[in-house]
């Protein structure tokens, strides 16, 4: 009778240990991916977290990953759907980058917007500024006061 109870205790303790090991492996994999991202940028957004979940989804359950990352599952799936859509601003991004490079980084968002208008693309200045921030480009000269 005691051997049965000892055997069942071993089974009960081994299951949480295995689950705990998987949890630790998942956390380690996440932290390595996070470290890679942190080297490229300073703060991590939900979109970055969703990319990490997407990369690790074949190794670990999505529910466990999103729970560990503190993002709702619906947010993950919405971001996943958003990432699969084609970029509607791709041609504008290329155009902004070429204008910026042609003028050797001296043009800010206002002059780039004017140049886009000359080239036949009427784009709002806020959109140009947002795209420039996404591309990580900034005018090298300061605005006159």
From TrEMBL:
A family per Pfam: HTH_21
Occurrences of domain HTH-like (ranges): 87-145
Region annotation Disordered: where it falls in the sequence: 1-20
Region forming the signal peptide: none
Domain of life: Bacteria
InterPro entries linked: HTH-like_dom, Transposase_IS3/IS150/IS904
Record-linked PANTHER family: TRANSPOSASE FOR INSERTION SEQUENCE ELEMENT IS904, TRANSPOSASE INSF FOR INSERTION SEQUENCE IS3B-RELATED
Protein name per Swiss-Prot or TrEMBL: Transposase
Species of provenance: Niallia taxi
């Amino acid at each position: 009778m005691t051997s049965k109870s000892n055997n069942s205790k071993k089974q009960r303790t081994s299951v949480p240990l295995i689950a705990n090991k998987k949890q630790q492996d998942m956390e380690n994999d996440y932290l390595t991916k996070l470290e890679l991202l942190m080297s490229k940028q300073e703060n991590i957004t939900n979109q970055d977290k969703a990319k990490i979940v997407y990369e690790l989804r074949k190794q670990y359950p999505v529910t466990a990953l999103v729970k560990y990352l503190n993002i709702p599952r619906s947010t993950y799936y919405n971001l996943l759907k958003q990432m699969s859509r084609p970029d509607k601003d791709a041609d504008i991004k290329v155009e902004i980058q070429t204008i910026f490079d042609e003028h050797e980084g001296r043009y800010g968002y206002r002059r780039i917007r004017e140049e886009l208008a000359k080239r036949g693309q009427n784009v709002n200045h806020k959109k140009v500024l947002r795209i420039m921030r996404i591309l990580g480009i900034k005018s090298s000269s300061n605005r006159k006061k």
